[in-house]
Amino acid sequence: xxxxxxxxxxxxxxxxxxxxxxxxxxxxxxxxxxxxxxxxxxxxxxxxxxxxxxxxxxxxxxxxxxxxxxxxxxxxxxxxxxxxxxxxxxxxxxxxxxxxxxxxxxxxxxxxxxxxxxxxxxxxxxxxxxxxxxxxxxxxxxxxxxxxxxxxxxxxxxxxxxxxxxxxxxxxxxxxxxxxxxxxxxxxxxxxxxxxxxxxxxxxxxxxxxxxxxxxxxxxxxxxxxxxxxxxxxxxxxxxxxxxxxxxxxxxxxxxxxxxxxxxxxxxxx
Length: 270
Hints:
This is Orotidine 5'-phosphate decarboxylase. The chain is of the alpha/beta class.
């Protein structure tokens, strides 16, 4: 099954457009787990198991694992998701951007070492920096397009033939770059007008939309701007507002409640 096929099935099966981001910061992990040598894995495992019924995908951010020498725990976590929650895609949020043999190694890292179903990439170096990922024909390649951070406009709004640069990225991603049919785009929830513009360019291409929850993106505006004709087309990511919803031994149950409420609030506007 390809990434887009798995994602489409998850949208329907769990009636969800919610992507749960996994950004484990050890200082915020509940105290009763912190002494464990695999605290990051155990924290994320319990979050995953509790929120899986309400999610269409999971998105571990690699920096939160690598900074704490927990890459082996990330491998275990993705293997756990695949084994215990089959069919829920895992997007490795790595934002890689390099060319040639280096990009080939980053692709191997994402898809062979970590066994992710998709990876986020930076298109700044052009198509040849994406080709090694696209060579893994069933895997998703999620290209940064219009990011949710304030500084994104420094480059993404540069004029290119009368249009902002992010729209050029969208057109390329939906056209000549999409050799595998598995490309998606990152478009931030903090800019719903830009979500609508991108949707108009790319048709039904899946959009990974960060920025709801702790970053304050408007759920109603996001859904109305980004939904496809059948009410899908998005992975709306929430990380901190879900995984840190509780701080005690009941943290997983609190995360499940937050995930269900977020999913349901999204569905109210589909």
